[in-house]
Amino acid sequence: MEGAAVVSARRSPPVPEYNVSTSTLAFDQHFTMTAKGILLLAEIMCGMLVWILVGGTEYFHLSALCWVMFIAILCWVLTVGLFIIYLTGAHNRIPRVPWRTLSLCLNCSATALYLVTALVDALSVTQAIRGRHNYNCWAASAFFAFLTTLCYAGSSYQSYRAWKTTEEEQ
């Protein structure tokens, strides 16, 4: 009994409790080192360069470049959203969504749309005067549009392989 009294006398004062909540979404550090993560980052960076380079000019005088801006921003926003979903692991927490099929459809659609966009962008360069600001920006955006198309094509291939292995397992 005396030992119990001594232990309770030495006890430290209670620590105040704080209302600390934990997030259910986790940050996957290693995702950005995978082929899928690298391709998504490349799509985001190159796609952003496309719409920044076109958006910094007087593109609204050519309806073809309005198409380029629309597709570049649409694909960029969808890709950023998909990147965040994969980076936070939300795709693992929502198993009812067929993420591999969704990723395949998004990447294949973006590849086709970006190929048309890159061609339109490249053909629109001739509308500008060589050596001027619009010409240089449109030429650079056409280059990055083709580079973005290649990134989406690589992602489409990766998505197809992942989708095919899922189909074979079932």
Keywords:
elongated, 170 residues, transmembrane, mainly alpha, MAL, 0% strand, structural constituent of myelin sheath
SSE topology:
Layout: H1 2-10, H2 35-55, H3 63-88, H4 90-93, H5 99-124, H6 133-169
Helix pairs in contact: 2-3, 2-6, 3-5, 5-6
What does it look like?
The protein has one domain. It has helices at 2-10, 35-55, 63-88, 90-93, 99-124, 133-169. By secondary structure, it is mainly α. The chain has six helices and no strands. The chain is elongated, with a radius of gyration of 25 Å. The protein starts with a helix and ends with a helix.
Write a brief caption for the model:
This protein is mostly helical. Helix content is 72%, strand content 0%. It has one domain (35-169).
Coarse morphology:
elongated
Main beta sheet: none
Q: Give the total of beta strands.
A: 0
> How large is the radius of gyration?
25 Å
Give the fraction of residues assigned to helices: over 70%
What number of domains? 1
- The residue ranges in which pLDDT falls below 50 over 5 or more consecutive positions are none
The number of distinct helices, counting runs of at least 4 residues, comes to 6
Secondary-structure element pattern, one letter each: HHHHHH
Distance between the amino and carboxyl termini: 65 Å
Strand content: under 5%
Structural class: mainly alpha
Average pLDDT score = 86
